[in-house]
Design a protein that fits this description.
Largest sheet: 6 strands, mixed
CATH architecture of the largest domain: 3-Layer(aba) Sandwich
Shape: elongated
Mean pLDDT: 90
Number of strands: 13
CATH topology of the largest domain: Rossmann fold
Length: 299
Amino acid sequence: MSFTGAVKTFGAVRAVDGVDLEISRGETVALLGRNGAGKSTAISLLLGLNEPDEGVVRLFGAAPEDAVRAGRVGAMLQDGRPVPRVTVGELVGFVAGTYPAPMSVTEALELAGITELAGRRVDRLSGGQTQRVRFAVALVGNPSLIVLDEPTAALDVEARYAFWDAMRVYARHGHTVLFSTHYLEEADVNADRIVVVDHGRVVADGTGEQLRRAAGGSLVAFDLAGAAADGLSRLPGVVSVEVRGDRARLRTDAPDATVIALAERGAIRGLEVAPASLDDAFLALTSPSATRPASLETV
């Protein structure tokens, strides 16, 4: 699967702006970005629902629509209305019949955790149940690539854990998984790679640990207590500085040296030192006021 210089515009908005991205067979990749960053548009290009204005998108060496027609792709999208007067088992069975080598309906329902819903009408399910039906529909064709757009939206905590357990089973059979999510901990735990998109561009591509380390391995926070924040960005190891009210937060890749320098300035009131989280790295990449570290640029 690859994007090469892919561009998609809607009026004056470049929703996808020169994306270069390659995903290998068997990888599980998370696509992160703020609302409007270009994630859903990139997914629509990958599935052949839109065509790029510039550049090329390929699936298994072919045009996306060819790969979809060949049954090599399954998708679970946010949009879509329940089919009226059809049971869950009938719907999943119908979709299975459109693929050349599907898994059994029983297996798909079991993986999605909805075996007990097989006889229920799809249009009478709760939001979380409907989401799991979409997952079964995406799985039943036994595709080589599955694309999931916010797959755990509307799921409760227990159902989210069950979903990812099922997805790991599916991925272990050599299938490729691409998913977008707003739950950063899901990306950190379940993805081999995390791709961050902002303003239609890939701004980072690596493991969760690589993103955290490149964004500044630790956070040092302290109370300014009326002191000036001038010069904090020049302290040893400091990657970025954020001041909220009377409290400063420094991202640093050398926390010991940063704390020693702060102590020399007498600025250690209310001191806290903690490892950077994926949330911190994400904000460093996508905050309009943040300066992106060079090491986090796309590779």
